[in-house]
């Protein structure tokens, strides 16, 4: 077993690490997405498709802002996990604190900008009349909590980089539990309606962020905040975060395009698309968790120069993703009629939901492969590859697919266009990721680290085994991360 300094992912079964970390992340994300899904269901119980459409427009814009936080958390995980894998724990602690500080600053500016421009943004994506007013008010309340979103995302990523699956899961589950309890209370008991849903989101995000920071402090993963540390961290952080944010932004911007396109078919179609979007994140939360989980696994093994384990992790992640998507697709196809009745959408909205459950969900297999490939690119020194593949899908292939959709397909055409774009680009990305993960094996001498290679002799069997492991490791073939730079 690896000592705490070197990281727990550098030994043992890579498939087990993938499964355990994904399961833990999935549990947290599933609960969080279930809360979002339940919130949309609560809104639908108000009996007005315009309200559901308004929340759908608002979520399309919030998806963009949240993606900035995701990109920043990717950079945090990549740097912290590498330092942990290289046994440079003090450096990892400084990087973790600086990542949180930088993220909060960036997302505060983002939140102010979105709040100021919320009405023009709603108009750009096709929101009109009452639906536009609902969306603008929802954004005014909920986007103010964006800095809390960043804190919770980065703290959870830091915990995953350490290999603490349970606590990273609890970060998201805490916020989800708060939202699930508050949303119906504020919406129905206190009669706040859609405003209550937005306010519950703010409180839940604050709870999640405080939980994450507390856990990181408890695991001694944070150093005291330092302006000098943040300045030193800024360059390597944004070297990864810049491309990662650009990569993450492509998907929500494409979703804005889809929302604009489907708005021509009326509020019912937008409501159906909002339900399909929530179904996507709820059903495939495991894939989102997988892409985050393997970042820490790849990062630790990359930092420890274990090239063969990096390639094995990538392969195992692809196998896991395929099995997961097939299972979720089968479940969605079975439940499709129930979902349509439950949300009470009319013909246009119902057709969008059915198209997603029967066809679109299957296409997510290739989007899942793209997520896995992107995690490899971000942690193996090729973040711009992630950017290139995502933007090729969302800025080139997606518009072409939408233009090519026959008008006779109606609103469900948005689902088919999304699936086609995912298949074409996902297939290319998975090949590139495989070649990259297989190309980093080199034999080099180990670097000097912040800790002794093994603990001092104590007479215990565990100490003796640690020293034997260290001696074996000195002669082991290692992979050289710098070979990619």
Task: List the SSEs and their pairings.
Elements: H1 14-44, H2 49-85, H3 89-116, H4 118-124, H5 129-142, H6 146-162, H7 165-189, H8 194-218, H9 227-263, H10 267-283, H11 285-303, H12 307-343, H13 347-379, H14 383-404, H15 413-437, H16 461-474
Helix pairs in contact: 1-7, 1-10, 1-11, 1-12, 2-3, 2-5, 2-6, 2-9, 2-10, 2-11, 3-6, 3-9, 4-5, 5-8, 6-7, 6-8, 6-11, 7-8, 9-14, 10-13, 11-12, 11-13, 12-13, 12-15, 13-14, 13-15, 14-15
How would you describe the oligomerization state of the chains in this entry?
single chain
Content-based structural category: mainly alpha
In total, the number of domains comes to 1
End-to-end distance, in Å?
Answer: 30 Å
| Integer-rounded radius of gyration | 23 Å
| Shape verdict | globular
Q: How many distinct helices?
A: 16
Strand content: under 5%
Q: Biggest sheet, open or closed, and with what strands and sense?
A: none
Please tally the β strands and state the result.
Answer: 0
Mean pLDDT: 85
Give unreliable regions as ranges: 1-5, 442-485
Proportion in helices: over 70%
What's the order of the H and E elements?
HHHHHHHHHHHHHHHH
């Amino acid at each position: 077993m690896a000592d705490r300094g070197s990281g727990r992912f550098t030994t043992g079964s890579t498939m087990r690490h993938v499964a355990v970390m994904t399961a833990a992340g999935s549990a947290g994300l599933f609960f969080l997405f279930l809360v979002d899904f339940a919130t949309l269901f609560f809104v639908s119980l108000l009996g007005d498709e315009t309200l559901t459409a308004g929340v759908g427009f608002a979520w399309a814009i919030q998806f963009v802002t949240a993606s900035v936080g995701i990109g920043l958390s990717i950079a945090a995980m990549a740097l912290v996990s590498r330092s942990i894998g290289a046994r440079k724990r003090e450096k990892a602690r400084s990087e973790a604190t600086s990542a949180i500080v930088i993220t909060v600053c960036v997302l505060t500016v983002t939140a102010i900008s979105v709040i100021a421009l919320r009405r023009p943004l709603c108009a750009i994506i096709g929101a009109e009349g009452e639906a536009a007013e609902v969306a603008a008010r929802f954004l005014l309340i909920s986007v103010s909590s964006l800095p809390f979103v960043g804190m919770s995302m980065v703290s959870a990523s830091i915990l995953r980089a350490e290999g603490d699956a349970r606590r990273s899961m609890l970060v998201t589950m805490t916020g989800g539990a708060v939202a699930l309890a508050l949303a119906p209370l504020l919406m129905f008991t206190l009669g706040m309606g859609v405003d209550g849903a937005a306010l519950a989101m703010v409180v839940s995000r604050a709870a999640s962020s405080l939980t994450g920071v507390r856990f990181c402090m408890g695991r001694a993963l944070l150093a005291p905040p330092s302006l000098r540390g943040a300045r030193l961290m800024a360059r390597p952080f944004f070297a990864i975060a810049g491309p990662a944010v650009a990569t993450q932004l492509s998907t929500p911007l494409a979703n804005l395009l889809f929302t604009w396109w489907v708005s021509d078919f009326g509020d019912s179609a937008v409501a159906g698309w909002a339900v399909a979007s929530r179904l996507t994140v709820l059903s495939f939360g495991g894939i989102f968790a997988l892409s985050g989980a393997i970042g820490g696994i790849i990062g630790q093994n990359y930092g420890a120069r274990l090239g063969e384990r990096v390639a094995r992790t990538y392969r195992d992640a692809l196998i896991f993703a395929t099995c997961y998507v097939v299972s979720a697709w089968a479940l969605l196809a079975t439940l499709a009629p129930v979902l349509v009745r439950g949300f009470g959408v009319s013909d246009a909205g119902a057709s969008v939901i059915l198209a997603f459950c029967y066809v679109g969900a299957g296409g997510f297999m290739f989007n899942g492969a793209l997520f896995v490939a992107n995690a490899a690119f971000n942690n193996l020194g090729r973040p711009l590859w992630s950017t290139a593949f995502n933007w090729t899908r969302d800025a080139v292939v997606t518009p072409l697919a939408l233009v090519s959709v026959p008008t006779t397909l109606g609103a469900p055409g948005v689902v088919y266009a999304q699936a086609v774009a995912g298949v074409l680009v996902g297939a290319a990305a998975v090949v590139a990721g495989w070649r990259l993960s297989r190309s980093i094996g080199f034999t080099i001498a180990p670097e000097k680290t912040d800790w002794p290679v093994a603990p001092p002799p104590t007479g215990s069997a565990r100490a003796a085994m640690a020293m034997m492991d260290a001696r074996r490791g000195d002669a082991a073939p290692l992979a050289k991360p710098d070979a990619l730079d």
